[in-house]
Structure to design on (387 residues):
């Protein structure tokens, strides 16, 4: 077993770190307060090829794997971007889905635009009445005269208001008409700026720089060739990208946890009370040390999951565990940073409260920790199904 990163991976980290650190800290604060898209980060990553990490080389990407996607998102977040790094999630998911299930024409049309950063992407799965229970979604696509007509509603769709390309999950056969719940789903590509579904921004308190939205489809039409894979067999498309999603969100969580932990360590060394640094007190240093241990352990599981997927091996347990442990480690680190900073943590200029808010999201979504535990209990421990 070799736990050392290759020279190429080390170079990736240094290149990304140097790039992200060019953006001043106040920028992250400002886009959070204004709810603005992180354009500076997007442009820097796009110009230097980081949008196309897993896009095949023939379409302008680097043709790399999950390990490299994990490194890119982990290093971007811990180098200063924090959870704004989530802008990389959808391009990586869309690229994988299109490469695996798109026609040659679809690949030629969209993959170069994703790899170059010309297209902002989003992933539309969640609905008001179906979050983790994806098989119960109601948005429906009906095939008519060479196109699909879509009606329904999605909610909590990150970046939908900015997106040029949407990865959209719908039903093409109603739930009541299938033998198994996983049947009758289909995955489509949709260009929001062309097909123009109605998009309404949600006022929220986490990752405001990415933005969450409700999306309403009212007889929205898309060409039939925008279907990925086969009609009614979208479950295979969906499950093929969910472990990738777990790994990337784990990497973002861990990187952001490391970012806020480093802030807390610096403050603990600089802040003096009763004539000595507060970091000299075990009440401060032990929780910070524990945060470091939790983050490092979570990163190991994320790396293992990435390696398994790149070897075309089953990684469902590892990817889910990485997402679960990464989110918990990050929220623990952010919470201990809040306690280390004391009252100063609540000042926007400290940046700590922002990471505290943002990291908490990953314990609820895109996969709630309860669903991860349910999966492990049922599929790994072979306990009775609880849902």
């Amino acid at each position: 077993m070799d736990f050392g990163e290759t020279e190429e991976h080390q170079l990736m980290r240094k290149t990304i770190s140097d790039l992200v650190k060019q953006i001043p800290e106040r920028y992250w604060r400002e886009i959070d307060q204004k709810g603005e898209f992180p354009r500076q980060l997007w442009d820097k990553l796009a110009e230097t090829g980081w949008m196309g990490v897993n896009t095949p080389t023939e379409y302008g990407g680097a043709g790399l794997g999950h390990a490299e996607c994990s490194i890119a998102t982990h290093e971007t977040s811990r180098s200063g971007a924090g959870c704004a790094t989530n802008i990389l999630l959808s391009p990586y998911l869309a690229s994988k889905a299109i490469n695996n299930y798109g026609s040659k024409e679809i690949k030629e049309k969209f993959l170069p635009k994703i790899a170059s950063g010309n297209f902002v992407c989003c992933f539309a799965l969640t609905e008001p009445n179906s979050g983790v229970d994806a098989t119960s979604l109601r948005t429906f696509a009906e095939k008519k005269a060479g196109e699909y007509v879509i009606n329904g509603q999605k909610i909590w769709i990150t970046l939908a208001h900015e997106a040029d390309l949407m990865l959209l999950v719908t039903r093409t056969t109603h739930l009541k008409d299938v033998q198994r719940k996983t049947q009758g789903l289909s995955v489509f590509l949709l260009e929001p700026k062309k097909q123009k579904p109605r998009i309404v921004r949600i006022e929220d308190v986490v990752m405001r720089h990415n933005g969450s939205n409700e999306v309403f489809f009212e007889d929205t039409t898309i060409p039939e060739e925008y279907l990925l894979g086969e009609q009614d067999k979208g479950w295979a498309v969906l499950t093929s990208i969910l472990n990738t999603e777990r790994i990337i969100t784990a990497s973002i969580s861990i990187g952001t946890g490391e970012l806020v932990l480093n802030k807390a360590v610096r403050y603990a060394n600089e802040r003096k009370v009763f004539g000595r640094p507060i970091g000299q007190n075990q009440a401060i240093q032990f929780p910070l040390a524990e945060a470091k241990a939790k983050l490092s352990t979570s990163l190991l599981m994320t790396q293992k999951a990435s390696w398994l997927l790149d070897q075309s091996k089953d990684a469902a347990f590892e990817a889910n565990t990485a997402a679960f442990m990464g989110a918990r480690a990050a929220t623990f680190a952010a919470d201990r940073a809040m306690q280390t900073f004391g009252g100063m943590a609540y000042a926007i200029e400290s940046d700590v409260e922002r990471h505290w808010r943002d990291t908490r999201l990953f314990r609820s979504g895109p996969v709630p920790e309860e669903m991860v535990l349910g999966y492990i209990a049922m599929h790994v421990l072979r306990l009775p199904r609880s849902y």
